[in-house]
Amino acid sequence: MKTPAFRVSHSVIWGSSLLLGLLMAVPKIADKHFNLHETIANSVITFVFSIFVWYYSMYTLPAYSAKDVAKGFSVTRLLKTIGLGVALMFILAYAQQLLLTHLDFGPVMLMIEVRGILISLTFYMFIHLLYQNYHNQQVSIALERSKMDNLAAQYELLRQQVNPHFLFNSLNTLKYMVESGDKHSIDFILKLSDFYRFSLESRKSDLIQLSEELKILESYIFLLKARFEEGMEISIDVPESRANTQIPPFTLQLLVENAIKHNIVSLDKPLRMRIFTEGDFLIVENSLQLKRTTETSTGLGLDNIRQRYLHLSGKAIEIHPDNQYFTVKLPRI
């Protein structure tokens, strides 16, 4: 994406130049030998010179490449600005001498030249600071956009990994149910359909309502229960007042899938899970009964949830494993 050109508002340029010209008139007004024509000439010279420095500096900025930004302060560019400023100030001082012939040209010219150098230095450093800060912001925006694109790619990769694996297991379960004449086969097909419809609908959603996430989680749990039967016990206790809060899609499904992937799920040793609220957190907790040989893990699951929460809400999830439970606390959005 092309970086927008750095610009300063014309109103800022003209307004600041006019203000500087008026400030230069203050010492003249306070002088007991106040001369209106000298004061006006002094202010006009400062105003015109300030306009020149602003627009000249802005005009030369496109040549200020990314390599110059990396180097920082450009002495050559500063000296060039000061040189042109000295020449312009000499012309303005000479024009003032033609209008106000009673002034001593030497001291007046020297004073004007010193003022021009000071204005050039101040404006250059100020514009340089603005320009450097602008480019730093653009770099930060580009990095943030890159992180989001990378996160989206990870999320899509995770979806592609989880869903086919889950679909394979679900179809095997469905095959067994049909062959055994299980009366819940139709319900299983409908729940499987609901789950994948949700997968397609939420493809472009960053956040969904918690009520929607819980609704699809019920379908997901139904499919898991058909596979593991009483080997899984999942309780959900979320008050209605939290139904309209937001959550990244597939968060709860990924946490349930993660628990199944790493823990024993059997009739003799059922995996127990709880989903409930506590303060500003939605908590997903499972009993810890790790498999001796764990499935190959990409490590994308929990990390993806952590990254999405940070990017979408600026809040971090909390992970608390102990000897009995593995607990994930999701902050309220």
From TrEMBL:
GO terms for molecular function: phosphorelay sensor kinase activity. Residues 153-230 form the Signal transduction histidine kinase internal region domain. It holds the Pfam family His_kinase. This is Histidine kinase. The keyword Membrane applies. One of its GO terms (cellular component) is membrane. The keyword Glycosyltransferase does not apply. The chain crosses the membrane at residues 40-57, 78-96, 108-131. Keywords: Kinase, Membrane, Transferase, Transmembrane, Transmembrane helix.
